Amino acid sequence: MRLTDFQKNRIVEIIHRDFGRDAEIYLFGSRTDDFKKGGDIDLLVTSEGSPEEVESRRTKSITGIQFAIGDQKIDLVVTDNPDTDSRPVVKEALKKGVRIG
């Protein structure tokens, strides 16, 4: 995984602050491969809420993470039920991602 402990801890702390302690957090995409370089930080978060609440939390989390670890591209996908969410990005994140929180 190509995140420092500091980055991982700050990401988890901020997402749990914004989405609650029950939120599960997965890192997926190129950052899970130690042999690749660069790339944005792709995150999947499981959380419930209305679409408006989720979007507000998502925006707050992205801004908080960028402020905490530096200006990096953050892709944050939120699902309320990963078992029934049919979006390919969710299925890929669960299949190949690494749970970090």
Using brief descriptors, characterize the structure shown.
single chain; 43% helix; alpha+beta; Beta Polymerase, domain 2; 3 helices
Task: Compose a concise summary of this entry.
This protein is of the alpha+beta class and 101 residues long. It is built from 3 helices and 4 strands, in the order αββαβαβ. The mean pLDDT is 92.
Explained architecture:
There is one protein chain. The protein is an alpha+beta fold and 101 residues long. 25% of the residues are buried. The two termini are 14 Å apart. Helix 1 (5-19) runs antiparallel to helix 2. 43% of the residues lie in helices and 19% in strands. The longest helix is centred in the middle third of the chain and has 19 residues, at 51-69. The chain is built from 3 helices and 4 strands; from the N terminus they run H-E-E-H-E-H-E. It has one domain: Beta Polymerase, domain 2. Strands 3-2-1-4 form a 4-stranded mixed sheet, sandwiched between helices. The mean pLDDT is 92.
Write the topology of this structure.
Elements: H1 5-19, E1 24-28, E2 41-46, H2 51-69, E3 74-79, H3 88-96, E4 98-99
Parallel strand pairs: 2-3
Antiparallel strand pairs: 1-2, 1-4
